[in-house]
Amino acid sequence: MATKKKVITKDDIVSKYMEEVLEKGQKPKSVYHFAKENDFTEAEFYAFFGTLEGLEKEIFRLFFENTVTLLHKNEEYQGYDMKNKMLSFYFTFFEILTANRSYVLQSLKIDRNPLKNLVQLTTLRNSFKEYVSEILTDDYRLEQEKFQKFQEKAIQESSWLQLMLTIKFWMEDESPAFEKTDIFIEKSVNASFELMNVAPMNHLIDFGKFLFKEKVYSR
Q: Where does the Tetracyclin repressor-like C-terminal domain start and stop, copy by copy (predicted)?
């Protein structure tokens, strides 16, 4: 009796791809070569991914998804303020990156053009920006509604830049257990939330509105 072939899953393909990149030090030449060398069909690959590039992006999105899943398993997390939610995200996310450090370092340095390597992070970027928007609280939101949309985008973009800088620091960190990265995370997140203090900005906007009214109605 013929042995029934195992049904390949999305996780199987991700795992096989990461292993191949690590073992060979380069990306597969094509979906055809990748599927053939790992004993599954192109059709099975395309059931989950449209391209190898899409698979690369999905790996980093899965790091993010696993981070958020772990956060929500912690009952205390829901009661955290925005800053502590962000700190929890960072520490959990970098634990996951550290568990996959060899792949992350290899994949983000595999092409001589740094911009091509960063394309892998586009899906992560979208997911992270959504996360920042979800945890944004009124404590860090301007009172004037017409400025809130602009402010939210600015916070999303600056938060993404901060995450990218932290990834770069972590990639170059040679300290035991990456303890310097932990210090970097705590200090950078604390500093960013100090800069996000909206009280001075609200006062500035109110002052601007006062000057505008005085100028208009004093004519």
A: 85-211
End-to-end Cα spacing for the chain? 96
Model confidence, pTM? 0.84
Q: How far apart are CA 152 and CA 137, in angstroms?
A: 10
CB atoms within 10 A of CB 160: 17
Among residues 94, 104, 102, 107, the alpha carbon closest in space to that of 66 is found at 94
- For 3-13, how does the pLDDT look when each residue is reduced to its tens digit (9 = 90+)? 567 889 999 99
pLDDT in tens, 126-178: 999 999 999 887 666 554 455 567 778 888 998 999 999 999 999 999 999 99
Cα→Cα distances 116→56, 107, 122, Å: 12, 10, 11
Matching residue, tokens 């830049």: 161
CA distance 186 to 217: 49
Q: What is the mean pLDDT of the chain?
A: 85
Domain spans, the chain: 1-50, 51-217
61-83 tens-digit pLDDT = 999 999 999 999 999 999 999 99
Q: Coil, strand or helix: which one is 76?
A: helix
**What residue spans of 29-144 are helical by DSSP H?**
31-37, 42-46, 52-73, 82-99, 101-109, 114-118, 122-135
